[in-house]
Amino acid sequence: xxxxDEQLLLSACLTHDRQAQYRLYERYKTAMFSSALRIxxxxxxxxxxxxxxFVQVFQQLQNFRQQSALGxxxxxxxxRRALLxxxxxxxxxxxxxxxxxEPLVAWHDSLTGEALEKAIGELPDGYRATFCLxxxxxxxxxxxxxxxxxxxGTSKSQLxxxxxxxxxxxxxxxx
Length: 175
Description:
Elements: H1 4-14, H2 18-40, H3 43-60, H4 70-88, H5 113-121, H6 125-136, H7 141-148, H8 152-173
Helix pairs in contact: 1-2, 2-3, 2-4, 2-6, 3-4, 5-8, 6-7, 6-8, 7-8
């Protein structure tokens, strides 16, 4: 259910009140940008995807059924837009076992959030998108596969290889 404040904001946005639309954008832009950035790995692409997503949010706001939190509904649109952008950029990478043969390693004790974000950002696009959808955004393999247009098995494989590659990247940083 929406809070009284969100309900008022939603009602004003539905009447195309530009100030209300701006307040809605301001309320959610940071979290939504972070989601898009994690998937896309490029600030410019993430900003473009965010803008496109909010245009879609305002165009489809009358379809919001209030069966979930408004932020969750917006995040779904942002994630879908980021994935569409990724596909349009044709940067999804299929796993190649010949390129990634190093063994698994343990996480380093002094791992920082900044180092992890940097390592995630350096993952190939397909790995990063799968990793972010499942491990960061909390989607199931089935949901991630549907969003990515792949099979559930591919989602599981991409996540497995993303984690392996992350471990190697982080091991290199902490040698």
